[in-house]
Amino acid sequence: MKNDYLTSLIEKHLQGKTSLEEENLLNDWYDSHGNISPDWDEQELGSKAHTGQKLWDKISSEIDNPADQPRLLKFPKLFIAASVTIFFCFTLYLLLNNNQKAIATPSSLKPGKGQAMLTLADGSTLNLKNAENVVIANQPGSIINKMADGKLVYTHQSGAQLSNTVSYNTIQTPRASQYQVTLVDGTSVWLNAETSLTYPTQFSEKERVVRLIGQAYFEVAPDEQKPFKVITDKQEVVVLGTHFDINAYPDETSVKTSLIEGSIKVIAGNKYGHSAILKPGQQSVMDKQQLKVHDFDNSEGIGWKQGYFYFNNEDMKDAMRQLARWYDVEVSYIGNADQIKFGGSFSKSDKLEDILKILEATKKFKCKKEGRRITIIL
Fold first, then answer.
1. Beta bridge partners of 259
2. Which of 14, 33, 187, 227 can pair with 183 through a Cys bridge, CB separation 3.0 to 4.6 Å?
3. How far apart, in Å, do the first and last CA atoms of the chain sit?
4. 345, 299 contact by CB (below 8 A)
């Protein structure tokens, strides 16, 4: 996109006058330049400092006048009107004031990577980060392959008979990591950071049962003769073949199950035995002794799998727990954060410092970083 036309689009966006087609052009430009600095020509585009000041004036007006309803610029990774404008303007400001790609300092808190530990049936462990496109183990009824794209794949051993003794494997992701595994029945599972999944190396003739601690997205291979069950500390989910997400971290106050496709039954794992049948676009929340169902935005349930954090009027502590798992940091608070909420979407490839700067722009709190500890000052 030529510099003069880009300038015109930015000006029109700040004035709220862009058409849908022009918004899409800005989206495309952002996707192409979101990680590098454009070649800024001051003769054509004007002073970087002047343009940056105009952008920050726009941010200030958004923050100081929350009742105003700014236009929603639908970048693929950005949502929520006010947060979108703040993030867009802040990103442009950074881009306009750097002529070279930013170099991370040693103290930067970088995003996580794909790694996991696999515990085999005999108790031995394998670091999956070190395995490359090879058969890494033979387990009862299945062969385990580490594929070139990094994921772990179980395949059924030809001629293997169903054993009377069930052998289990466990895959665990540490903080700052996520991983994908395909089970022996063809079910694909994406594990978020600090998550553990335990499963048999071959399923029984009657059902397919796995146990989850943390958060995972499931694409269950259809099999009407063998229901697929996901058991967590507080509930059980029963399916035949569908796509859904379960958020069951031990340090969360509730278990959230989000259905993307198909149908599932959620059963509360308590003495009351409440249950609910979910339809696509519905989310169940198991909170204390109650099981509630409501509609939800798909991005809210599976944004982590698609590479971003999605906060929709999120409690501050809930949001910071997500960031802490991904960036492997500890978060503490000075003051009461119980009433603080915010919205927005951030790429999981961003540095934590950049995300915190954007959140600080709300003027609701300050952040202090010391090594891997973040202190929120309210």
1. 244
2. 187
3. 42
4. yes
Characterize the bridge pairing of strands 282-287 and 243-248: unpaired
Q: Which residues contact 42 (CB under 8 A, 6 or more apart)?
A: 48
Sign of CA dihedral 93, 327, 230, 315: negative
Report the distance separating Cα 216 and Cα 272, nearest Å: 26
For 173-216, the pLDDT digits (tens) are 999 999 999 999 999 999 999 999 999 999 988 999 999 999 99
Sign of CA dihedral 183, 186, 192, 193: positive
* Alpha-carbon separation of residue 148 from 61, 118, 154, 173, 216 (angstroms): 49, 17, 14, 19, 22
